[in-house]
Write a structure and sequence with these properties.
Elements: H1 3-11, H2 21-30, H3 41-62, E1 71-75, H4 77-100, H5 127-142, E2 147-150, E3 163-167, H6 168-178, H7 182-202, H8 206-222, H9 234-258, H10 264-275, H11 279-287, H12 290-311, H13 313-316, H14 329-332, H15 335-342
Parallel strand pairs: 1-3
Antiparallel strand pairs: 2-3
Amino acid sequence: MDILRSVRAVAEAEGPGVVDWDRAAAAAKDATDPGSVALTDAEREGYAADVRDARSRLAEVAGIEFDVPDTVEVQNRHHWIDASVGTFRRVMDPIEAAAADPGGPDGAFDATPGPVPGVAFAQDLSRVANTGSMAFALGFLARNVLGQYDPLLLADEPDADHGLYFVHPNIVAVAAALDVDYPRFRRWIAFHEVTHAAEFGAAPWLPEYLESRVERGVEGMVGGPGGAGRGLDPDAFAELQTAMTAVEGYAEVLMDRAFDGEYADLRRKLDERRGGGGPIRQLAQRLLGLGLKRRQYERGAAFFRHVADERGIEAAGAVWERAENLPTAAEIDDPGAWIVRVDP
C-alpha cells in the first residue's frame, strides 16, 4: 500500500474523459493492500464445494432451475478493482459522452448532470477530482466487498458470460473480526452470491429490465442523445431501486432458508457490521449510498419473509416469472397487496 503513489496517480489524471479510469484503478490499488490469495488445497476445494452445494440446495428449496457462471474466481482486492472498474465505466459512458459534446448534434443541450453519491459529475469540476473520487470508491469497496455476482449489465458483448467472485482476504478478515468460523462464514457468503445467480437465471428478462432503467435514468441526467436536458428521470430510478430491493431481499431470505447450517449468529453479526464502523467508514458509507443498500436489504427481506410465510418460498419465486410480477414500491411495504395481485 503506497498512499503517496496513489495521490500521484490521481494528480496525473489526463485524457478527454470525465474520469481517467486507468489512473483511478491504479490509485485505488496503490491505496489498498491486495491481501493474499495463497489458498491451501482445502480452501480451494472448499470454495468449489460451497458453490456446488449452494447451487443444488438453492434449486431444491426455491424450485428454480439455473446455472452458476462458468467464471468463478477467488480474488484479492486488486483483482476485484480490475474486474469492477469496467462496470463503473459502462455506467459512466453516457455522462462522459455528454461531457465531451455538451451541445449535442444540434447544440440544444446545456445542462449539468445531477449528483451521484461519492462521485463529482458536474462538468466544471476537474478530472483530477473525479478521478480521485472514483479511486476512493473503488478502494473502499475493494476493502469491504466479500463476494459478488456480476451479471455484466451494460456489457458491450451481449453474450458475455456472467461472473461469480469471492474476495478471499476480506472473507478471512471479516470472519476473524466477527469471531465466527471461517469455513462456515465462507460457505454462507457463497450461498448469498449463488442466490443472485439463481435470481438472474430464473429471470432472463431481468438484466435488460435493469439496464433500461439505468440507461433511461442516466440519459435523463445528461439530456439523452441530442436532446435538451430534462433532469433526473424519477420513474426510472424508482423502478430501479424497487427492483434492486426485490433482488437483495429475495437473496437474504432464500440464502437463510436454504443454508445447510446454523446462521443466526452470522446474520446478526453481519447486520451489525453493515451499520457499524468508525466515523470514516460511516462517512464513506453515506457518500457511496451504502445506507440505502442496507435499507434495500431490510425492506426486501421483510417483504419476502411475509410472502414465504404466507405462501411458501417457492411461491415467493413467482416474482421472477415476468417483469409485471415485480412488487411496486408500495407493495414492498404491503406484501399482502402483492399476494392479492399476483396470487402466486
